[in-house]
Amino acid sequence: MRELNLYAKVEHLLGIEEATEALYDLYHSELEEYKVTTLLDVGCGRGGFMERMISDGIVCKGVDLSQVMVDECQAKGLDAVCMDAKEVTGSYDAIVSIFDVLNFMDEKTLVAFLNAMAERLNDNGVFIADINTLYGFSEVAEGSMSRDSEEESLIVDATFENDKLDTVFTLFEKQEDCRYVKYQETIIQYFHKIKIFQKLEKLRLVEKQTFSLYDREDKTLLIFKKR
Ligand SMILES: C[S@@+](CC[C@H](N)C(=O)[O-])C[C@H]1O[C@@H](n2cnc3c(N)ncnc32)[C@H](O)[C@@H]1O
């Protein structure tokens, strides 16, 4: 997954730390309503949410398709594996997919993924995820930005068309000999209509909250139970 590894390499330049913490606060407070002793974090990234939950005494496992992300989790001593979530074994009181993870899947992959997650939930388990709204894609995510430092220079160029956001990440990274190496990858994110989540075979959408992460109603939180 070269594009996800490039994302992992540039994430610290994107200025999303505050938004990430705000999402962790939201998930943490939602999970307080449930009896959770085991948690699976799908698309766990660098493992920040798992660290928070472990400090509450919860046993956490993370999976991510980026080896770079998983290496960082493992270096912190977290239980994380680089694999497709559909291959995860075990069962959990809670499963989370935080910060756009579902938008990385096309509709067919998404539906198969969600039904696979139902199989991994304990009977009273809860699955929580967030997605970008149409407003979030067209008014917040679309556009260009650049970030420069002495060591690296990043250009991000995102276009939203036909319910798909194509984000081109171009990174120039300074080498020891002062030359720059160029990396370029495109990440595709898919807008999903709520009705997809309302007709799942194995999960029941019990709550949806649209909220503002960066601007107005740019995000929706989805909470599911097993059918
Ligand atoms: C925006 S990051 C969020 C990371 C983390 N949840 C956080 O809040 O910091 C999205 C993550 O999802 C991972 N990802 C994307 N598609 C995935 C999939 N199908 N299965 C597992 N991880 C995936 C990416 O590698 C990336 O680490």
Structure explained in plain terms:
This protein is 30% helix and 38% strand. It is an alpha/beta fold and 227 residues long. The protein has two domains: 167 residues, Vaccinia Virus protein VP39 (Rossmann fold); 55 residues, Single Sheet (N-terminal domain of TfIIb). A hairpin with a 5-residue loop joins β8 and β9. 33% of the residues are buried. The mean pLDDT is 96. Bound molecules: S-adenosylmethionine. S-adenosylmethionine (SAM) binds next to α3 and β2.
Overall number of domains: 2
Largest sheet: 7 strands, mixed
Unreliable sequence segments: none
What would you say the CATH architecture of the largest domain is? 3-Layer(aba) Sandwich
Task: Quickly describe the structure.
The chain has 2 domains: 2-133 and 192-226, Vaccinia Virus protein VP39 (Rossmann fold, 3-Layer(aba) Sandwich); 136-190, N-terminal domain of TfIIb (Single Sheet), CATH 2.20.25. It is built from 7 helices and 11 strands.
Summary tags:
11 strands, Rossmann fold, alpha/beta, seven-stranded mixed beta sheet, 30% helix, single chain, N-terminal domain of TfIIb, 2 domains, four-stranded antiparallel beta sheet, binds S-adenosylmethionine
Which SSEs are present, and which pair or pack?
Layout: H1 2-10, H2 17-31, E1 38-42, H3 48-54, E2 59-64, H4 67-75, E3 80-82, E4 92-97, H5 107-120, E5 121-132, H6 134-141, E6 143-148, E7 152-161, E8 164-174, E9 180-190, H7 194-198, E10 203-211, E11 219-226
Parallel strand pairs: 1-2, 1-4, 2-3, 4-5
Antiparallel strand pairs: 5-11, 6-7, 7-8, 8-9, 10-11
The protein binds S-adenosylmethionine (SAM).
Residues 4, 20, 42-45, 48-49, 63-66, 69, 85, 98-101, 104-105 line the site of S-adenosylmethionine.
